Amino acid sequence: MYMEKQPKVVLRNGVGMPLLGFGTYQLQGPETSEAVLRALEQGYRLIDTAAMYQNEEDVGRAVRESGLKREEVFVTSKVWNSDLGYESTRKAFDSTIKRLGLDYLDLYLIHWPCKPHYIESWQALEYLYEKQLIRAIGVSNFLIHHLESIHSECAVKPMVNQFEFHPFLQQSELVDFCKTHKIQVQAWGPLTRGQHLGHPLLIELGQEYKKSPAQIILRWNIQKGISAIPKSASKERIAENFNVFDFELSLEDIKKIDCLNQNYRLGPHPDNINF
Ligand SMILES: NC(=O)c1ccc[n+]([C@@H]2O[C@H](COP(=O)([O-])OP(=O)(O)OC[C@H]3O[C@@H](n4cnc5c(N)ncnc54)[C@H](OP(=O)(O)O)[C@@H]3O)[C@@H](O)[C@H]2O)c1
After folding, report:
1. Is the residue at 29 inside a domain?
2. How many Å lie between the centroid of ligand 1 and the Cα of residue 182?
3. How far is the CA of 153 from the centre of ligand 1 (A)?
4. Pairing, β 22-23 against β 16-18
5. Per-residue pLDDT tens for 55-87?
6. Which of 45, 56, 103 is nearest to 79 (CA)?
7. Which domain, by its residues, includes 46?
8. Which of 10, 11, 73, 9 is nearest to 46 (CA)?
9. What is the overall mean pLDDT for the chain?
10. Is 192 in the pocket of ligand 1 (CB under 6 A)?
11. Among residues of the chain, what percentage have pLDDT more than 90?
């Protein structure tokens, strides 16, 4: 069911972005197009892909075949680590746009802060942004010191930082830094890839609100103003994860979830990547 009133955030440059989006990591081939079409039917209006996911063609096909106007769907992609550098990032963007079959991207992110070339990649993103080929530019998995280096060396500040964020990894200093600098936080792995959905507090709150643990987490994100991009290949779970706009967590329950942080990472530490 399409819900008119899904919340949007306004990025620093005035571009509106839905708070809840659809992730596509590990979706491959026709399964990708089917899942993205289902998500769009359900009402999702933000689709997150990346060159590294090798599914941009299928994502683009679903967006084009959805019957929605291009401007109704917010499409994000990311430049992969092997394409960092000024010229390589510009080439990678051209390939991404071609694979997606779209004229522009809504958001383009540097996937990981790989040294030494992420600053040059950022300058390529600035160029593409000035050429109006991307509506907003951002980064992913950047820590405070990476953001500070962009702030000191570049003209345009990132509008979004997408990083691992869920009740068990809350990175509050990074979130506070992003808030201070008007960088919208977007959570990847919001559902802990299913690993912690059986936590007793999430089950208890689920029973109280008549919602699933996944819905409790996504609602917690939304009420914190943090964008989330849950992935699912299942029709039921795609619907479940979008059905979070008809209830509200109390402040007390939000604080209870805030206490679940364990600095538990699903993915690598961004200062320690070897891929
Ligand atoms: N920037 C980055 O470095 C980065 C890294 C990782 C991910 N991402 C992006 O963030 C998106 C989300 O992260 P993620 O895919 O890693 O993890 P996630 O969304 O936290 O979890 C996805 C997993 O949870 C399961 N799931 C989904 N909904 C569920 C529900 N309601 N109840 C129980 N299980 C459920 C899915 O299985 P089914 O498919 O079987 O439902 C899938 O195995 C990715 O798809 C990708 O777009 C970005």
Report:
1. yes
2. 26
3. 34
4. unpaired
5. 999 999 999 999 999 999 999 999 999 999 999
6. 56
7. 17-192+222-242
8. 73
9. 96
10. yes
11. 96
Long-range contacts of 71-74 (CB under 8 A, 24+ apart): 72/45, 73/40, 73/45, 73/46, 73/47, 73/106, 74/17, 74/18, 74/21, 74/45, 74/46, 74/47, 74/106, 74/107
Q: Global pTM? A: 0.98
Q: Indicate whether residue 39 lines ligand 1 (CB < 6 A).
A: no
* 129 among known catalytic residues: no
Q: Is 61 part of a structural domain of the chain?
A: yes
In a domain, 47, yes or no: yes
Residues 208, 236 contacting (CB under 8 angstroms): no
- Answer whether 229 contacts ligand 1 (Cβ < 6 A): yes
H or E element at residue 17: strand 16-18
Helix H or strand E segment including 110? strand 105-110
Q: Are residues 90 and 124 in contact, defined by beta-carbon separation less than 8 angstroms?
A: yes
With a 6 Å cutoff on the Cβ, whether 79 touches ligand 1 is no
C-alpha of residue 267 to centroid of ligand 1, in Å: 12
Quote the number of domains for the chain.
1
Which CATH number fits the domain that encloses residue 172? 3.20.20.100
The values of phi and psi at residue 107, to 5°, are -150, 130
Task: Write down the catalytic residue from 44, 53, 108, 118.
Answer: 53
Q: Is the pLDDT assigned to residue 180 strictly greater than 50?
A: yes
Q: Among 36, 188, 240, which residue has the most ligand 1 atoms within 8 Å of its CB, making it the best to mutate?
A: 188
Which residue type does 6 have?
Answer: Q
Side-chain half-sphere of 217: how many Cα atoms within 13 Å? Answer: 33
Residue 237 belongs to a domain: yes
